[in-house]
Design goal:
Layout lengths: L25 E6 L12 E16 L7 H12 L2 E10 L5 H19 L6 E8 L6 H10 L7 H7 L8 E9 L2 E10 L12 E6 L2 E2 L1 H14 L15 E6 L6 E2 L4 H23 L7 E9 L2 H13 L1 H8 L5 H10 L10 E4 L2 E5 L2 E2 L4 H8 L3 E7 L5 E8 L3 H8 L4
Parallel strand pairs: 3-4, 7-9, 8-10, 11-15
Antiparallel strand pairs: 1-2, 2-3, 2-9, 5-6, 6-7, 11-16, 12-13, 12-15, 13-14
Helix pairs in contact: 2-3, 5-6, 7-9
Length: 410
């Protein structure tokens, strides 16, 4: 087997570097190991840092979680890590003691293949639930998995399931002390809903960040991004988001500093970018929906209200049918659990007011209908009972969604 010398210093500034390999010192790749039914599809990948990296993660709140989630929670809490090993096509969830042991084996196999210390790899898996992993395929795949700089795209291909497009992000951040980079990839298309959605997302940075601060940033940013998207009101067993920071830029991010504020904003921008790409690639989706809620009593109520509207099957089908059915939107706000007063509530579709302080604006329905014909539909709901605002993102619900999910396991 090949190995990565753990003492080597990698500066992957090749001109086509993108995604998770954009920051210094991160390598990645993906190959076909035969885990998916499509024997030509990429389904095994890894991200490796040339030096130990701190890592923070957020994971599914589904109590029926996969062994890889439990394992990685512990790894990122207790250790600096060297990378993350992933497979798609098999979630390894609902697989009993054998599934637990296979996660341990997978970590050990990867660490041996790449010449890394024990318990230095986190594990992420996605795919069919309830099927045992073929560990021989994993072992054989690791022999072929040549980790390279500038190979984010292959990794991004290896993590997808029903996705129709690869989802990548990269940015360079300029500070008074110099520059650092952020990269990311994600997968997700169906079973997308808050806490968390069915997604895997991986972010890298060469900034120098303390573990405690990175833990705060990932939770704060996830709550306003990945936990504000919805496709179909389902969440899965394997959802995981990671940020790895290896410090090779030597740009220090200290909590409370100007750099820290800028870093948090930059991570949020990266999360929003990939979260929106997931929704735009929602299974069967033809439209992208933004729900803005203004003037809620507090931030949690604002988020609750926005999510309820974006997730409503009746609202989503109205969006698909290009029907400005404002009653469905108001009803979703009313049952969301947020405090709502119909007499102070106003609703706009794009710039068109269709409900003003409790009074329908029927004369504007024709213009509102034109707004519903746009590819990107925007609802602006003004509750006018507080100061908190929130945004949720969703998509329409089409017949193609039913087709995709009725044939998923067969």
């Amino acid at each position: 087997m090949h190995s990565i010398k753990i003492e080597m210093s990698i500066n992957n500034n090749c001109h086509y570097s993108s995604g998770i390999t954009y920051p210094q010192g991160f390598w990645a790749s993906g190959i076909c190991a035969g885990i998916k039914k499509n024997k030509e599809a990429l389904d095994l990948g890894a991200i490796i840092s040339s030096v130990p990296a701190i890592c923070s993660g957020v994971f599914t709140q589904n109590r029926f979680c996969a062994p890889s989630v439990s394992y990685s929670r512990k790894i990122v809490k207790e250790n600096t890590i060297r990378g993350i090993l992933i497979n798609s096509g098999n979630a390894n969830a609902g697989t009993g003691q054998e599934g637990i042991l296979n996660v341990l084996k997978m970590g050990e196999m990867g660490e041996k293949a790449f010449g890394l210390p024990p318990q230095s790899l986190a594990i992420a898996q996605t795919g069919i639930i309830g099927v045992q992993m073929d560990m021989n395929k994993v072992q054989d795949g690791l022999r072929k998995l040549n980790i390279e700089p500038c190979n984010s795209y292959a990794f991004a291909k290896a993590i997808i399931t029903t996705d129709t497009v690869v989802k990548e992000y990269n940015a360079e951040i300029t500070t008074l002390d110099g520059n650092y980079r952020i990269g990311g990839v994600a997968k997700g298309s169906g079973m997308i809903h808050p806490n968390m959605a069915t997604l895997l997302a991986f972010f890298t940075t060469d900034a120098k960040v303390q573990k405690e601060f990175l833990d705060k940033v990932i939770k704060e940013v996830t709550d306003s991004t990945f936990n504000m998207i919805t496709v179909d009101k389902d969440t899965s067993t394997n959802d995981s988001t990671f940020i790895m920071a290896n410090g090779l830029s030597n740009i220090e991010i200290k909590e409370g500093s100007a750099n820290a504020i800028q870093f948090t904003d930059a991570i949020k921008e990266a999360f929003i970018n990939l979260a929106q790409k997931i929704v735009r690639d929602g299974e069967g989706a033809t439209k992208f929906l933004t729900v803005n809620v203004f003037g809620a009593k507090d931030i949690e109520q604002a988020r609750t209200c926005a999510r309820a509207i974006a997730a409503s099957p009746l609202v989503k089908t109205a969006v698909h049918g290009q029907d400005p059915n404002w009653g469905r939107i108001i009803a979703a706000a009313g049952y969301s659990g947020a405090e709502v007063n119909v007499d102070t509530t106003s609703l706009f579709i794009g710039p068109i007011c269709i409900f003003d302080n409790g009074t329908p604006q029927g004369q504007n329905l024709k213009e509102a209908n034109l707004e519903m014909h746009r590819k990107d539909v925007i609802f602006n709901l003004y509750l006018n009972i507080g100061e908190a605002d929130a945004t949720a993102w969703g998509c329409d619900l089409s017949g193609q969604y039913v087709t995709i999910n009725s044939e998923y396991s067969t």
